[in-house]
Amino acid sequence: MLARVIGGGLAGAEAAYQLAIRGAEVELYEMRPVKQTPVHKGAGIAELVCSNSLKSADVNTAQGTLKEEMRLLGSVVLRAAYESRVPAGGALAVDRELFSAKIEKALSDTGRVTVIRREVTRIDENTIVATGPLTSDKMASEIEKKAGAERLYFFDAAAPIITGDSVNREKAFFAARYGKGDSDYLNCPMNKEEYLRFYDELVNARKVILKDFEKGELFEGCMPIEEMARRGADAIRFGPLRPVGIKGKDGEKYYAVVQLRKEDAYDGLYNLVGFQTNLAFPEQERVFRLIPGLENAEFVRYGVMHRNTYLRSPGFLSADFSVKNAPGVFFAGQITGVEGYMESAASGLIAGINLSERMKGAETHVLPETTTIGSLQRYVAGYAGNFQPMHASFALTPPLETKIKDKSLKKRAYSERALSDLEKYIENNKGVSL
């Protein structure tokens, strides 16, 4: 029983693992390093290219519930994430290199996954396409033939990374918003004068000229900081630079606050939270060093902006992630219209399980609509509005039977319902979990 997975990102790695532990021999194709993408730096399987944060680990949030659902389903990506975790308050953030190495080892340990380093330009039966937002032109053309629709593009932007020891700790300080959770974020506070100077330079800074193939509509979820700022002087101050809940040692309040998140386990690298950008590299140094505490910031990676590709999946994919007119072909990851690291991995998990089931002649799985994964399956397959990439959200699930006014209690109720329904589904459906 041979299966092919095209793409070695989070979705492809998860899909390959799920197939392998269910007895399939798997060929996992990854075109790097034979053919690189505009943003990848190495050739590792499941290499993270934007943030190293996998978002909230709090089970009473949609992101936390998604992770718990993945744990119940035996996700290798989730397991590797916890084994390579670095401090990030209530978020699950990872050491990138260790995370990739853990996943590669898990795939190797199955004894059934062969990694093949070359570009694939044809889609055969018993295949999962998980080529992601940076799908090569040749593969995109092949997908377009199958989808029968024009490819769509949006932009994704990555934030800069700086060294921790280049941050002025006399100005920057560790704190948790509202004092909740561990104080894992470095905070760079601004008064009004400092903020307005920074804002003026930011909106007037020189941007990188996009290549023709990258020109298109900005995706709201990854809006570059300078584009967000152009909406008005307070746009970023009420967004990624919001100062609420953060006070100085003497209870001092600030006009704006830039937060830095750890990128590794050794306190060596920090990510500028919310600072996805398309500014020219010299402009990033000039403008971002206006932030108090970052006057001498040493940049180890500049922010970049690149093409992101996804399908209009409704009408093309079924809720089990298979192609409607080619049930032996599945898609997974961001190319399907799910947005986010863990959402991508979760779609790979379901696609891997379902291709295994289909190859065995069994029924495929669509999880309960009350679960975050099940709601994403239905969104991808059947959303009738303006289809855009979507994160896990309780808003995609049916309303609670009982109205709850308290927001925290309401989220807890959504989470408890999702996990209870998934546990029942797993108990009643052989093959969905081992």
Word description of this protein:
The structure is a single chain. The protein is α+β, with helices and mostly antiparallel strands and 434 residues long. The protein folds into 2 domains: 2-151 and 311-428, FAD/NAD(P)-binding domain; 158-307, Elongation Factor Tu (Ef-tu), domain 3 (Beta Barrel), CATH 2.40.30. It has helices at residues 10-21, 62-72, 76-83, 96-110, 137-147, 192-204, 225-229, 281-288, 341-359, 372-382, 407-428, and strands at 2-6, 25-29, 53-56, 85-86, 91-94, 113-116, 127-129, 152-158, 161-163, 173-175, 185-190, 256-262, 269-272, 299-301, 304-310, 322-323, 326-331. The strands form 4 sheets. It has a 6-stranded mixed β-sheet with strand order 6-2-1-7-17-16. The protein has a 6-stranded antiparallel β-sheet with strand order 10-11-12-13-9-14. A 3-stranded antiparallel β-sheet has the order 3-5-4. A hairpin with a 6-residue loop joins strand 12 (256-262) and strand 13. Helix 2 (62-72) packs parallel to helix 9 (341-359).
